[in-house]
């Protein structure tokens, strides 16, 4: 394999799509997975956290911790005790390819280091098999343990579904340590590739990883019904309900239709996804069902790191809306889930 450099900061959207498409093919071709992981170093593929200019001034918008410096957690007001730096097992090199992937046990911390001459970085291929379907948590602790490493992970299953995660939400705040909580709908083997985002190596570039089965992070009333890719195919939605859906594939579009009755002062839209461990970066756009006119869109919540739309729209009369749910980067996979709740707020 020839050395590959991380992509420049501004990788065109089409190239990112091509990369994701190539990734699916590559998962069937083990030797190229590491190459694609290296290619994935494009920083612009990260979800763009909302600007602090947009932040709600009623809440604390101080920068979230991302350096792993213990002083940061004190600054953030997080008073929870730090997790002990637990390591149940150490990685066994070489584990740098799918063929050399290291079987690991779930519910235990596996630790290692990004080592090597720095030319290619060091990748860690780990695999595990849940005993039951459900919800899967995969998490890296690196900077939060004082490591110099900015880790990223690629999660894939036997069916070629795969997703990159660069960052996560930990203890209610943004973290540079990647993590996700995703549906594991099928039994089988899951592979995680852990790598340093800049392919940096050396002493102090350590990581810890754990995969575990967890409780569902959300509740819902009904699941989306595909195909719902156009407003004409929109799923009916009753105010007060919660729908569970997935960005099942690249550029998935999920449409819903909701009747807004008289007697409301507003309608509240709330998405749960990234903040509860989904790799999806959801945006919603609401249209007048009769005219197709765009009413408003919401891209994120009220605090800096919250990528999940949260928006309250005033209403003055009965109406009917269609709601489009999509991923800001058109990312999609079996892991990219969301819930959407739409609630009517009665007039006083
Ligand atoms: Ca290693
Ligand atoms: Ca390795
Ligand atoms: Ca969908
Ligand atoms: Ca759809």
Q: What level of helicity do the residues show?
A: under 10%
Q: Mind telling me the C-alpha Rg?
A: 21 Å
> How large is the share of residues in beta strands?
25-35%
CATH topology of the largest domain: Jelly Rolls
Count of alpha/pi helices: 3
- Side-by-side strand order of the widest sheet: 1-3-12-5-10
**Please, what is the average pLDDT?**
82
* Backbone shape: elongated
Bound ligand species = calcium ion
By CATH, the architecture of the largest domain is named Sandwich
State the distance separating the first and last CA atoms. Answer: 67 Å
Written as H for each helix and E for each strand, in order along the chain, the element string is: HHHEEEEEEEEEEEEEEEEEEEEEE
CATH class group of the largest domain: Mainly Beta
Largest sheet: 5 strands, mixed
Task: Provide a quick synopsis of the model.
The protein is built from three helices and 22 strands. The chain has 348 residues and is mostly beta strands.
Give an account of the 3D structure.
The chain is mainly beta and 348 residues long. It has 3 helices and 22 strands. The protein has helices at 13-26, 31-39, 70-75, and strands at 89-90, 102-103, 110-113, 124-128, 134-141, 151-156, 162-165, 168-170, 173-175, 179-184, 190-196, 206-214, 222-223, 235-237, 242-246, 254-260, 264-272, 282-288, 294-298, 310-314, 319-327, 337-346. The strands form 5 sheets. Strands 1-3-12-5-10 form a 5-stranded mixed β-sheet, with no helix packed on it. Helix 1 runs antiparallel to helix 2. The longest helix has 14 residues, at 13-26. It is elongated and about 65 Å long. Mean pLDDT is 82; it is low at 1-74. Bound molecules: calcium ion (4 copies). One calcium ion binds next to loops.
